[in-house]
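Subject: Sanity check before I submit

Could someone independently write out the structure tokens for this chain? I want to compare against mine line by line before I put it in a report. The sequence has 496 residues.
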Amino acid sequence: MYNSNLPEVKLGIVAVSRDCFPKELSYTRCKAVVDEYGKYGNIFRVEDVVENERDVVHAIDTLRAAGVNALVIYLGNFGPEAPETLLAERFDGPVMFAAAAEERIAVLKSDRGDAFCGLLNACYNLGLRGLTPYLPAYPVGDAGEVAEMIAEFVPIARTYLGVRHLKIITFGPRPQDFFACNAPIAPLCRLGVNIEENSELDLLLAFDKHANDPRIGAVVKDMACELGTGNHMPDLLPQLAQFELTLLDWMEEHKGAAQYVAFANKCWPAFQRSFKFVPCYVNSRMARRGIPIACEVDIYGALSEYFANCVSGTPVTLLDINNTVPKEMFCSADKAQKKGYSQREVFMGFHCGNTPICYLKQADMKYQLIMHRENEASGKPNLSRGTLEGALVDGDITLFRLQASADGHLSSYIAQGEVLPIAPCSFGGIGVIGIKGLDRFYRNVLLAKRYPHHAVVAFGHYGKTIFEALRMLQVNEIDHNVMDRMLYENENPFSI
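---
Independent answer below. Compare away.
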């Protein structure tokens, strides 16, 4: 069900050489890296080694002709500071630098490369040009080690490409009083993100035009298959299918100059009254396809979802950092269930029903209890139907958000934890989440730095990659749950 809403990274590598060092050394070392990278995937190697600015022009032309969109600049020896950094500047896409280690005693006598030293000058010159390429935690190694570094670069490059070519499509203003979903436009533009803002009426009109879409039957069949025993409202599926097709068609028709799309849509209170259902299940299906739809017109939530989507290569969800875990529930859980967390280090992540079905233990089509209570309190659920509910699957997660303040300042947080095997005993898509040091993180980051209630949950530990992708996009204020060690300024805490 996953689609092409994520970039395909096409790697290229260029070896560079300073003219007073053996050019052949850089050439052979680069070829060895390419051979080693074969276990991870394909990488295009520019045959000619770059020594001067004319070589840079030729290399750029060669890379463009090959369709390369992510570049590794490899110092097989000391390297030419100006040409190699000019190469990074002229290349239109994410760039990584790595340097060769000295492999054997024999090379020290006459063919020493000194790339360890050359990388210092390269970074000085990158600073002069205002460039922020990816530098691995320790960017010097033998062929196998550099190949592993390149493999770690791929999701970082994918994220950079995705964000730089993203359009966020919105429908409606944020709900009343949801100032936390404030979305200054200027920081989006600085990141390269385009935005298209529409009315809820535009969406309703497009939905009505799909009333007799011949594709509805096939989508209904797919929904029924996906839901299985959780399909408690089969009569609702044709409307949900109609809505899904509406969004997919709008995406293709309005993508414009962008390559990728995320949505941020208003889902209450007028939505259910106008459409006669809630969009949660459709949102979950779209997220499963790699097309996130942030609830409540949370534009930076949509950006954060897509960002984490690119990093992980798998679907993600957007949850409220919602409620505490009662002492009664926590104390009754056994030691294995608690996994070393204290009660103040756990919370419940919740949203109405937007989490992809693959991350729920048992998914059921239900109705939104809060909306039902507000709009249909005296009757059978109708307008509030269409959520996908269940307990989150146990396992590693990364909590993440990229946010802009009201004055346009970009910041982010990352925290790694896990969904604990404790039954949440509540409604919605919900799970008990443990994060080490959550009590201090909640007070000193989430509250003190005015973060909204929505957080992206990626299913796995991706802190290291998210951190580097943020740095490449020049988001330099990155908070995290405090580690048990002192860090250098701007050091990636997830790389230690």
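---
OP: Matches mine. For the report I'm noting this point. The radius of gyration is 25 Å.
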